[in-house]
Write a structure and sequence with these properties.
Layout (H helix, E strand, L loop, with lengths): L10 H11 L4 E5 L2 E4 H16 L8 E5 L5 H11 L3 E5 L5 H11 L3 E4 L4 H7 L8 E4 L3 H6 L15 E7 L7 E6 H12 L9 E4 L6 H12 L3 E4 L5 H10 L4 E3 L2 H8 L14 E5 L5 H11 L2 E7 L6 E5 L7 H4 L4 E2 L4 E5 L12 E6 L6 E2 L3 H7 E2 L2 E10 L5 E6 L4 E3 L2 E3 L1 H8 L5 E11 L3 E10 L7 H9 L10 E4 L13 H9 L7
Parallel strand pairs: 1-10, 3-4, 3-5, 5-6, 9-10, 9-11, 11-12, 12-13, 25-26
Antiparallel strand pairs: 1-2, 7-8, 8-18, 13-14, 14-15, 16-17, 17-20, 19-20, 20-21, 22-23, 24-25
Helix pairs in contact: 1-2, 2-3, 4-5, 7-8, 9-10, 10-11
C-alpha cells in the first residue's frame, strides 16, 4: 500500500516515511545511477545541514542551474528541510537572463551543472548576492562532508519553499513565490483519482526548473515510486526508456507526443507497461490526441494551470477522452480548486459566456517576489486572475478561448511577447515591432515578429532573428519575420494583437 498522505504537511514527509519502511526501494534513476530512498533522504539531510552551516538567513534563496539531474531532488528536499527557498533557473536562458534572476532573487548559493559553469564564470563580475558556487561534479564531496543529523526547527507550511521565475508582461521575469502547502496540494491534484502505489515508474521529460516537471516527479516520490530522468531528450531516448524501465506513468508536452508518434521506432516499441499519460502546457490537436490514445493504449489526462498555481487547477480525466468535444476542454476543477469565469466587472459569467478565468485555493502563490504592485494586480479580493479567457459548458468543463496576456506557448515553453519586443526595439533599423504566436505543426505555436523599419534600413529577417538570439533564449526568438508599413493599434496606442494573429489562425480549431 502507498504511504498515507492525509496528515502530511510537507513534500518531504512521505519521502522520509517511505524510506523508513522500504529503505532499499529505488527512488531515482539517471544515466545508470540509481539512488535508493534511504540514500535520497540521508543526502537531503546533509544538504540541509551544509546550507545551514553557510550562515544563510532563514528563508534565504538557494539557486540551481542544471538540466534534469538526480542531484536536483537531493538539493530540493535538503533546501526545504533547512527552511531555505530553492530557486531553479531555466537552463535554456541567455547569460543576461540568468544574471537578472540571480540578482533579483538574492540567491547566496548557486549549484551549477558543469555544462553551465562557463556561463556562470562569464557573468560572475555582475552577480551581486552569490557568494558561493558549487559545481555539481564536485557536489557529492561537499554533500558527504556535512552532518548526517536531521536539522531541527519549526517550518510553517505557508512559508515559501520554491521561487520559480516566469516571464512577465512588463518584459522582465517575475519570481513566483510558492509555499509548502501549495506545492503539496498541487502534487496531490496531479496524482488525481488514482492511487500511485510503490512500484510505479514515472518518466520525467519535462524540465525540473518548471513547476509541471517538478510536481510530476514528486508524485512518484510521495508514494514510493521510481523516477526515471533523461539528460538527452529525443523521441528515441523516450521510447527506449519506456520499454527498458517499464514506465507506468509519463508526462509529455503535446509537441513531444507528436514527435514521438512520428518516429519510426514508435511502431515497434512495447507500451504495455504504460498506465497513464499526462499532457499539458499547450494545446494538442484532437487528431494527434486520438492517435496517441490508440498508440499508447493507456489512460490519458490533461492538466491546466500556471506557474502561479504550481501546476494543474483543472484536469481532463481519462473518461473525458472518449469524445472530441470534451477533448478540446481543460476538464473540470481539481479537488480544492475554486475556479470562476468573470466579466470585466468581476461578475460570474453565464454558462458558455467568455470571461477571465480566476482561481482561489491552497495552490495559489504567495505573490511575486519584491513586486507588490504586480501581486496586487494578479491577486484581487483573494482571487488569482489568470489572464486567460475561457468559459464553462453546461457540464462544468472549462474551455480556453483566448489568452488575455497574449502569452505564446511554444513546445511547452511560455514566451511573453513583451519580453521579445523589448529586445527587438533595440535592434538597429527597427522603428516599431509586435510579437505574436502563430501556428506551428511541430511546436503548437512559434514566435513571429511583425516589424516596421526606417526608410533607409536594409535589415533582413535573418538580421532580426540573429539579433534576438544574442540577447534572449533561443526558444523565445522569432522563427519568422514579417515586414509591414504600420502596426495596427487602437486609439490609445495599444497593439491590436488579435488583428495581427487572425490571418494565421484562420481555419484552426483552437486559437491558443
Amino acid at each position: 500500500m502507498c504511504v498515507p498522505m492525509r496528515d502530511h504537511q510537507f513534500i518531504f514527509d512521505a519521502v522520509f516515511a517511505h524510506a523508513g519502511k522500504s529503505a532499499d526501494d529505488t527512488a531515482l534513476v539517471f544515466e545508470g545511477r540509481a539512488t535508493s530512498y534511504d540514500e535520497l533522504t540521508h543526502r537531503a539531510v546533509r544538504v540541509g545541514n551544509g546550507l545551514r552551516d553557510m550562515d544563510i538567513a532563514r528563508q534565504g534563496r538557494v539557486a540551481i542551474l542544471t538540466g534534469n539531474n538526480d542531484y536536483f531532488f537531493e538539493i530540493w528536499l535538503g533546501a526545504a528541510l533547512g527552511n531555505f527557498v530553492l530557486t531553479p533557473i531555466n537552463a535554456r536562458l541567455a547569460p543576461q537572463e540568468v544574471t537578472y534572476i540571480l540578482n533579483d532573487s538574492g540567491a547566496e548559493v548557486l549549484f551549477v551543472d558543469t555544462t553551465f559553469f562557463g556561463l556562470v564564470r562569464g557573468i560572475s563580475d555582475q552577480l551581486t548576492s552569490v557568494r558561493e558556487t558549487i559545481p555539481l561534479d564536485s557536489y557529492p564531496e561537499w554533500r558527504d562532508a556535512q552532518s548526517g543529523e536531521r536539522p531541527a526547527g519549526d517550518i510553517d507550511p505557508t512559508e515559501p519553499m520554491v521561487q520559480m521565475y516566469t516571464s512577465g508582461t512588463t518584459g522582465f521575469p517575475k519570481g513566483v513565490v510558492l509555499n509548502h502547502s501549495a506545492v503539496l496540494a498541487c502534487v496531490r491534484s496531479m496524482m488525481g483519482l488514482h492511487e500511485w502505489e510503490p512500484g510505479h515508474v514515472a518518466l520525467v521529460t519535462a524540465p525540473l526548473f518548471h513547476t509541471a516537471g517538478c510536481a510530476w516527479a514528486n508524485c512518484a516520490l510521495q508514494t514510493g515510486g521510481t523516477i526515471i530522468l533523461l539528460r538527452e531528450l529525443t523521441p528515441v531516448t523516450i521510447l527506449n526508456a519506456i520499454e527498458k524501465h517499464k514506465v507506468t506513468q509519463a508526462l509529455l508536452v503535446p509537441a513531444v507526443i507528436q514527435m514521438v508518434l512520428q518516429t519510426p521506432e514508435c511502431a515497434t516499441t512495447d507500451f504495455s507497461s504504460l498506465k497513464r499519460m499526462l499532457y499539458g502546457a499547450s494545446p494538442i490537436p484532437v487528431p494527434v490526441l486520438r492517435q496517441a490514445v490508440e498508440t499508447f493504449g493507456c489512460e490519458f489526462e490533461q492538466g491546466y494551470g500556471l506557474t502561479e498555481t504550481v501546476g494543474p487547477i483543472a484536469m481532463l480525466r481519462p473518461d473525458d477522452h472518449r469524445t472530441d468535444t470534451k477533448m478540446q476542454s481543460c476538464g473540470r476543477p481539481v479537488p480544492g480548486a475554486n475556479i470562476r469565469v468573470v466579466d470585466y466587472a468581476g461578475r460570474d459569467c453565464e454558462t458558455g459566456e467568455v470571461g477571465e478565468i480566476v482561481f482561489s485555493g491552497v495552490q495559489s502563490m504567495n505573490g511575486y517576489w519584491n513586486q507588490p504592485e504586480e501581486t496586487a494586480k494578479t491577486i484581487r479580493d483573494g482571487w488569482l486572475h489568470t489572464g486567460d479567457a475561457g468559459y464553462f459548458d453546461e457540464d462544468g468543463y472549462l474551455f480556453i478561448h483566448d489568452r488575455l496576456k497574449d502569452m505564446i506557448v511554444s513546445g511547452g515553453e511560455n514566451v511573453y511577447p513583451a519580453e521579445v519586443e523589448r529586445v527587438l526595439e533595440e535592434c538597429p533599423g527597427i522603428t516599431d515591432v509586435a510579437v505574436i504566436g502563430v501556428p506551428d505543426e511541430r511546436w503548437g505555436e512559434t514566435v513571429k515578429a511583425v516589424v516596421v523599419t526606417g526608410d533607409e534600413s536594409t535589415i533582413t529577417d535573418s538580421d532580426v532573428i540573429e539579433f534576438a538570439r544574442q540577447h534572449i533564449a533561443r526558444f523565445k526568438c522569432p522563427t519568422s519575420v514579417d515586414f509591414v508599413d504600420a502596426i495596427p493599434r487602437n486609439p490609445s496606442g495599444k497593439i491590436l494583437k488579435k488583428v495581427l494573429r487572425a490571418p494565421y489562425w484562420e481555419n484552426h480549431e483552437r486559437n491558443v
